[in-house]
Structures are given as structure tokens and as C-alpha cells.
Design a protein that fits this description.
Blueprint (H helix, E strand, L loop, with lengths): L4 H5 L7 H14 L2 H4 L4 H15 L2 H17 L1 E3 L2 E3 L8 H9 L8 H6 L20 E7 L1 H6 L1 E13 L2 E16 L8 E4 L14 E7 L5 E4 L2 E9 H6 L1 E6 L5 E6 L8 E4 L5 E2 L2 E5 L2 E8 L6 H17 L4 H14 L11
Parallel strand pairs: 3-7, 9-15
Antiparallel strand pairs: 1-2, 4-5, 6-7, 8-9, 10-11, 12-15, 13-14
GO molecular function: protein-folding chaperone binding; unfolded protein binding
InterPro entries: DnaJ_C, DnaJ_domain, DnaJ_domain_CS, DnaJ_subfamily_B, HSP40/DnaJ_pept-bd, J_dom_sf
Pfam families: DnaJ (PF00226), DnaJ_C (PF01556)
């Protein structure tokens, strides 16, 4: 069993944000170590701070409600990618200061929120309001989304002013439309200015989405190029083959491999990679890397054929594929049982 954060704050599971803040305010004041002077106060104070940090954040609360403390602290897969594990920073006084705006054990922020002073009475408003630090979100993109570009919709929840009253707020959902340019590169920051929580004391934070590439079943992205791994047999490595590529833009490209495939060999197909961000009409390259599957057993008679073939290659100074094919075919014919051979025409 993990920590019951609702139990720590003594609230119902369907409690709203105000109830969560009220519960934390009462408990944080009661168990502030500087005020209580109790041996267990620091441990309880830390549990209260951790519970508040989880339940006051919509994403953390949603993960906790569905997967519990274990899922929250292990990390889970979400609809838009992997949700990173959460770990409390371990400084409950930092949480206390962020909430009350002071380290005083006698702070009383709830009355301030219920009956805020006029705008001109706020000390921070007399000068320049401070802007909240930016809020970062990971934006997972598939190679298909990166190839074609478009618009991605993301839902966020934030505190917004109620009507024209710039002192009262309520939690609302907003849909952000995120433009995705073809060929957009990993770790690109897409900024939505001042889309964070609104409050009369601070300028809302910027919401920043940082792009990451999702894994693809066939391709790996490297700058504007696509890397593809193909496994072929030793016969195909020596005699040639054709690699069939199902491209991201739903085409089938057949790439003939006529060279000898040796360890480290790569086949580059031009203009079959990802769109180049600065000029999407142009594309990077597709690079095919090979893994050669060697046979586990070769009969002695076949080894002799190979020895003759490689000997002829050395003599001829090159790789005569047709000659090797004919020798292998002749060897197969010679090893057919006489009774199984076709009668002469």
C-alpha cells in the first residue's frame, strides 16, 4: 500500500482545489516544526507538503488517482507519450514558502485569498509584477506527424479570472493548438506566452512544449536522415538482393543491393529521409544498415564449391557473381540421385 495523500490531508477524493488548499493551509500551520516543537512534526510536515504537491497538480493527481503512489513514482505511459516519474524534492519548507509566501509559522494566506486587498494595495503591484517561472511539458511526436506537419491539440487546466473580476479565479480547461512544422527537430521549444495560472499578484507563466521523437518500428531519426536496419542472409550479402521499404509517406520503394554487403556497409538512398525544416521540399537521406545472418551449418561438399568459387575470384581479380551461381547450380545437379534426374529430351 502506498501513501494515501487524501488521507494525509483529511479530504475527500472529489475535493476541489480550494478544499485542497484549505486542508494544506490548516495542517501546515498546525504541524510547522517551528511552531509545534515536536519530534514527529518534521516527518508529518514533509508528508503534508508532498500530499499537497501531488493533489494540487492536475496531471500528478490524475496519475495518482489511476495508478496510485507506485505508478506516480515509477512513471507511466500516457496518450501523448511517457509521463515521467514524480519524486518529492524533500524540502517541505520550500512548499510552505511557495504557498504562504513566507516562512512565518503564523502565516494566514486563506483569508488573503478569500478577501484580497485592492490591486493598488498589493506590494508587488506598486512596482513591476514578477512573472511566474515557465512550465515545461514534453510533446511526443511520431515520425508521421513530423513528416507531414500540422496542428496538434493539447488540453491544459489553469486558474482563470472569473469575468471581469481580476481577483477571483476558477479552474478551467483550455485547448492549445500547437503548430507542427514538417521536419521539426527534437528539443524544439514551442512557447505559449502567459498561459499559466492567473492571479492578481504575478504575471502568468509561459507554457513551453518541448518536442521529442516517438520510437518507430522501422526507422530511427538522425538529424534529417532516417536509419533503417535490415537483416539479410550470407547468400544475399554475397550475391545481392532487393530491400523493400515502406516509407512514412505511404509509398513502397525497392532498393536493389548489387554490392557485396560487408560488416559496416551502408546503402544510402537520397531524398528518402525526413523533410528539411528550413526547406521542406527537400529531404534528408535514407541510410540502410545491414545485419548479416550466417548459416549455422554448411555441408563439406558445399564448402568445396565455395573454395573453388573464391579461388576463381582471386584469379579473376573480381567477384564474378554469375560464375559462382553457375558453379553452385552445377554442384546441386551433380548431387541429385540418378533415379530422380529427368530423362533426356
Amino acid at each position: 500500500m502506498g501513501i494515501d495523500y487524501y488521507g494525509v490531508l483529511s479530504i475527500q477524493r472529489n475535493s476541489n482545489e480550494l478544499a485542497i488548499r484549505k486542508a494544506y493551509r490548516n495542517l501546515a500551520l498546525e504541524f510547522n516544526p517551528e511552531r509545534l516543537q515536536d519530534d514527529n512534526a518534521e516527518k508529518i510536515f514533509a508528508f503534508i507538503g508532498e500530499a499537497y504537491e501531488v493533489l494540487s497538480d492536475p496531471l500528478r493527481r490524475a496519475v495518482y488517482d489511476q495508478y496510485g503512489e507506485e505508478g506516480l513514482k515509477r512513471g507511466v505511459s500516457g496518450l501523448d507519450g511517457y509521463i515521467s516519474a514524480y519524486h518529492y524534492h524533500g524540502d517541505p519548507m520550500r512548499t510552505y514558502k511557495d504557498f504562504f509566501g513566507t516562512a512565518s509559522p503564523y502565516a494566514d494566506l486563506l483569508d488573503y485569498l478569500k478577501d484580497p486587498p485592492l490591486m493598488y494595495e498589493l506590494p508587488d503591484i506598486r512596482g513591476i509584477k514578477k512573472k511566474q517561472p515557465p512550465i515545461y511539458h514534453t510533446l511526443w511526436l511520431s515520425l508521421h506527424e513530423i513528416f507531414f506537419g500540422g496542428v496538434k491539440k493539447m488540453k491544459i487546466r489553469r486558474l482563470q479570472y472569473i469575468g471581469t473580476d481580476c481577483t477571483l479565479t476558477e479552474l478551467k480547461e483550455n485547448i492549445l493548438s500547437i503548430p507542427i512544422k514538417p521536419g521539426i527537430r527534437p528539443n524544439t521549444e514551442i512557447i505559449f506566452p502567459e498561459e499559466g495560472d492567473q492571479n492578481p499578484v504575478h504575471i502568468p507563466a509561459d507554457i513551453i512544449f518541448v518536442t521529442k521523437d516517438k520510437e518507430h518500428e522501422c526507422f530511427t531519426r538522425e538529424n534529417d536522415n532516417l536509419i533503417m536496419h535490415v537483416e539479410i542472409s550470407l547468400e544475399e550479402a554475397l550475391l545481392g538482393t532487393t530491400v523493400t521499404v515502406d516509407t512514412i509517406d505511404h509509398r513502397v520503394v525497392r532498393v536493389p543491393i548489387t554490392d557485396v554487403v560487408y560488416p559496416g556497409y551502408k546503402k544510402m538512398v537520397e531524398n528518402e529521409g525526413m523533410p528539411i525544416l528550413e526547406n521542406p521540399e527537400n529531404k534528408g537521406n535514407l541510410i540502410i544498415e545491414f545485419r548479416i545472418s550466417f548459416p549455422q551449418y554448411i555441408p563439406q561438399s558445399s564448402k568445396g564449391v565455395f573454395q573453388k568459387a573464391f579461388h576463381l575470384v582471386k584469379i579473376g581479380g573480381g567477384f564474378h557473381h554469375e560464375m559462382i551461381n553457375k558453379m553452385i547450380l552445377a554442384d546441386k545437379i551433380m548431387r541429385v540421385d540418378p533415379c530422380e534426374q529427368l530423362p533426356p529430351p
